[in-house]
Amino acid sequence: MSSNLAGRLVRTQTSSIIATTVCFLVVALVLTGLMAHVVVTMTRSANEIDDARASRAARAAIGAFVARLGATTTDNAVWDDAYRAISSPTAADWAYENWGKTSEDYALYDGAIVTGPDRSSVVSAYAKGKPFQPGTFFGEAFYQQINVASDPAKAPVVNFIKTESGIALIASQAIQPFEAAAELPKFSVLSFYKEFTSEVLDTLSNEHELEGLSLETAPKPGSLNTPITDMKGAVIGYLVWPSKAPGSAVFHQVYPYLAASTVILSLFLIGVLLVGASEARRLRQLAQTALFEAGHDSLSGLLNRHGLLNLLEELDNSGSSPPRLYLVDLDGFKAVNDAWGHAVGDDLIRLVSKALTACHPEIIAVARLGGDEFALVHIGSATCGEMEKTILALFAEPFKIDGRTIEVGASIGAAARNGDVPPLELLRRADMALYRAKANGRGQAIEYDPELDRERQRVAELEGQLKNAISSGAIEAVFQPLVSASTGAVTGLEALARWRTATGNISPEIFIPLAERCGLIDALGVHMLRTSIEHAKSWPDLALSVNVSPIQLCNPEFAAEVISVLQELDFNPNRLTLEITEGVLMTNPDQARRSIDQLKRVGIKFALDDFGCGYASIGALRQFGFDRMKIDRSLVWALDEGANGADVLRATISLATALQIPVTAEGIETTRQAAILRDAGCDQLQGYLIGKPMSAYDISSKLEEESAA
């Protein structure tokens, strides 16, 4: 009995040992399997990530190939000389000298074809410097492309095409002048083509890190590929390259160590498995952190621009309800940074981020696109107006930061995804609406309307017309008399810009701000100064006043340009007065002061224009040493609007008198206004009562009449 019991105890202990051993082995195998799974997953993920990168690189390589040939075609097709030459009897010789001969060893294209306006005749066709038959080489697809490209356009028609020897990229565009006339005859077409040779493949491979890149008629098993399609969308070939499989390469490098670890598993298995699991977790955390940081803003934790575009792309692919995008730009954020420092500004960004995230349940995502610009993605039944009111309400109350009360506003631009609108276009539309909202003033909300794009196009066209008008002298100078308040004699003239076009006159209130926005104000200012002086040399007894934009005065080269014009035209600087508005005193006072001092040293005078409609202070009048003050016409017109208008005007003139600054009143339209201003101490008058702006010829006639009388 005791023997049986001892046997049972031994068997029990043996079973326990076996069971423990089996359990240990099972645990070891499970842990080994898990580790193997982690390694395989990491290997596969690395391979897939690199394959995706390589696929994007291949598409980018094709895009770059297409863009290079397209740009080369446009450079040669949209060319006045080419347009004239191809229309001449020597078209074939000209085409050969400029394109055909070049194709022999030119890196950008292998052949050049010029077809006539009838779209079937070949004027010139050379491949590698030798004549060839494009119809035979390319087939019927060539004429189909020529037919599409024969209409004038600024963009070429670019397609891959199957040839006798393989695949080529061909770009075709109508040969046209740079500036199209109202009516043009039918166009000849220029076509460049580049074959997919081994040299081209080597270039694309080196530029885009696609080792082993080749052109095949069908995909290779086990290799990566990108299809090449013709103009009809049919696949005519594939770019094929082997996967680098970096994950597998790394796996093969560490395989001996894994094998060694397996051999000594009995000693180090638990430690190795723990370290491996810990390392896997660390790598996953690093990967998750990297993915999060790539798509999120580090300060606010919101999506960044990249993350927002990815989200919009995912929403588009998911087939969910079309989203509405709101761009929110903070009004007054720069003042917060300037007043309280960037640390407080960062705290404000965080508070605003939290407020925007929780402002409405239908907001599915919030992004920070820039310093103080946010984006909100909305899907739901709430209307655009309701959402805009909700967002603006967030800024109705000030924010509290460390005991500070900080007030900021917001401007909103909204755009809805209607139809097949890509994310970038949706973002652009919202940005267009935001730009208009900011231009309209603080606290505005604007929804995108196609008219915004049309208006931008009109402004762009007007900018081009303005540039041409300045260079061609189409903007003319007219002159308004400045007379002595005591004698009524003309003592000076103010030069004013006028732009007359075939469709009518364009107001200076339109084209001068446009010139300031598009960077043409310096050219316009020099043109007006030069034109005014050229006319004023005919009136040696009169002073000349010319208006100067604040942007001009803040240009460090402005003073030198003015002095150069005076020296070139031999004009006395003492006769010239430059009129500036007080805006220059606020935008860049230091640079303005330097320019004023430099010009005053040569004898040029300065007048403060439109005084009384802004914020110029007595200190500013003293600091800048103005030689004359021009009272804004609103103060003059106020004489007829209220009982205290005359008192305000007299007080203004008294201020100038106390500062020993002569005063000009502009906008005088009645004899009553002139009499009051004369009695108040104004020494110079200007306005329609005195004389309207006149051409130089009319001014000369008026002066001759006065001298004859």
UniProtKB/TrEMBL annotation:
Q: Which domain of life is it from?
A: Bacteria
Ranges for the GGDEF domain? Answer: 321-450
Looking at the keywords, is Translocase present?
Answer: no
Keyword annotations: Membrane, Transmembrane, Transmembrane helix
Q: Say if the entry is tagged with keyword Disulfide bond.
A: no
Q: Where are the transmembrane segments?
A: 17-40, 254-275
What region holds the EAL domain? 459-707
Entries under InterPro entries matching the protein: Biofilm_reg_signaling (IPR052155), CHASE4 (IPR007892), EAL_dom (IPR001633), EAL_sf (IPR035919), GGDEF_dom (IPR000160), Nucleotide_cyclase (IPR029787), Rev_trsase/Diguanyl_cyclase (IPR043128)
Pfam families (alphabetical): CHASE4, EAL, GGDEF
Its recorded name reads Bifunctional diguanylate cyclase/phosphodiesterase
Organism field: Rhizobium beringeri
